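FIELD: query
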Amino acid sequence: MTKLPTWADLVLVPLISLLLAAVISGLVILAIGEDPVNAAKVMVTGALGSPYGWGYTLYYTTSFIFSGLAVTVAYHAGQFNIGGEGQAQIGGLGVALVCLALPWPHWTLALPAAMIGAAAFGAAWAAIPAYLQAKRGSHIVITTIMFNYIAAALIIYLLVGVLKPAGQMDPATARFPAGAALPTFKDIPILNAVFSSNTPANVTFFVAVAACVVVWALLWRTRLGYQIRAFGKSEPAAIYAGISPFRMIMVSMLISGGLAGLMAINNVMGEAERLLQNSAEGAGFIGIAVALMGRNHPFGVFLAALLFGFLYQGGAELGLWTTIPIELRLLVQGLVILFTGALDTMVRMMLGVFFRTRVKGAA
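FIELD: result
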């Protein structure tokens, strides 16, 4: 197969995959008797056509950035972390414990503490599958999947029997102190000129953007990042170079779990302001698709997260204003995953034929 230029690999392959997914989604909408053009218009208008739509799109984008980065870091170490959902839920537990521990006077004090709690709890939950992989040879995919279910059961147990305030019916913690409430875009100077209505988008979005920069610097500008990538490319070569497999698996999964845990800042602290069941809202699983679509690069993850934020909010609007079921967004997400993952080689082969023909023609 002809090696593609870097720009084609990073831009054309994802773009063509996205277009193929859009075309097939349009055919499905047509098959159920709906107008695909009108559906696309409703999605674009609902997700991008107003400050309200943008607010929800960026709120979902924030969560997807963290979960996509979590998958990305593990991927570069040769690990496939599918436990982002559980790590995010346990990260939410860390957020709740920190926020309820003190009567926080201001969010600028509560946010750093909650970030530490979220990252620490998420990393601790990822550490167990990582240790089983590094020491016992347990498959990281299987263990991280199973730990999602264990995390969900643990959260339910805690919310029903331990953390729920006396006399409260809802399986949830008490509301966080007013000083721990994060400002939304409506509360931020300059942004409030655009985002005049209440949306859940909050300052966590800027934390997510900063996380993209930090992960990029870590992976491509530090010795540890070089070791992680070297280990992920070839474990025997890394061992020959003196890199410890145990250390790489543990460190990469701890960072990955910490990033997944940070997602809870957006959902638990930024929106709900208390810990609820299923606080991750499926974002941990969507992070896998985000990382695939973003070519496991932080900048690509940001763009892919924005795309999936658009699909999530646009799909909700589609279910609200048309007779098309809201579950269609799951179909579109599945098709994007299909073409960017399973059928990625097919797209590359198509482009390879094009570039090979072009080179021969120039010769």
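FIELD: remark
DSSP finds 14 helices and no strands in the chain.
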